């Protein structure tokens, strides 16, 4: 499963993050959970990688709780300079 949704870019777009962990995130989560709008979810073997731009730093804890509620065990969260354009698997 690959969800590819355009993400905002530019100085006012927020801070880019990557969340890494294990488990699965349902495909329909991207359209129904506000924290996933504009995010890119990529399963790689047993690992799940979620890229996205966070415009409100206070929403990181909400994103973590949402990922865990959807079945992902988050192992790490890191800021990144750039996000991938799109992924095709």
Write structural notes for this entry.
The structure is a single chain. The chain has one domain (15-79): Alpha-Beta Plaits (2-Layer Sandwich). It is built from two helices and four strands. It has helices at residues 29-32, 59-69, and strands at 15-23, 40-44, 47-54, 72-79. It is globular, with a radius of gyration of 12 Å. Residues 1-8 have low confidence and may be disordered.
List the main descriptive attributes of the protein structure presented here:
globular, alpha+beta
CATH class: Alpha Beta
Order of helices and strands: EHEEHE
Q: Give the CA-based shape.
A: globular
Structural class: alpha+beta
* Tally of DSSP helical segments: 2
Number of strands: 4
Q: Under CATH, the topology is which?
A: Alpha-Beta Plaits
List the SSEs and their pairings.
Blueprint lengths: L14 E9 L5 H4 L7 E5 L2 E8 L4 H11 L2 E8 L10
Antiparallel strand pairs: 1-3, 1-4, 2-3
Brief summary:
The protein is α+β, with helices and mostly antiparallel strands.
């Amino acid at each position: 499963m690959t969800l590819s949704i355009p993400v905002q870019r530019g100085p006012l777009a927020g801070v880019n993050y990557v969340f890494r962990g294990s488990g699965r995130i349902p495909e329909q989560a991207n359209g129904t959970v506000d924290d996933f709008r504009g995010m890119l979810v990529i399963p790689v073997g047993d690992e799940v990688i979620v890229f996205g731009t966070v415009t409100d730093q206070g929403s990181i804890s909400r994103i973590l709780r949402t990922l865990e509620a959807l079945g992902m065990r988050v192992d790490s969260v890191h800021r990144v300079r750039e996000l991938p354009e799109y992924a095709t698997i």
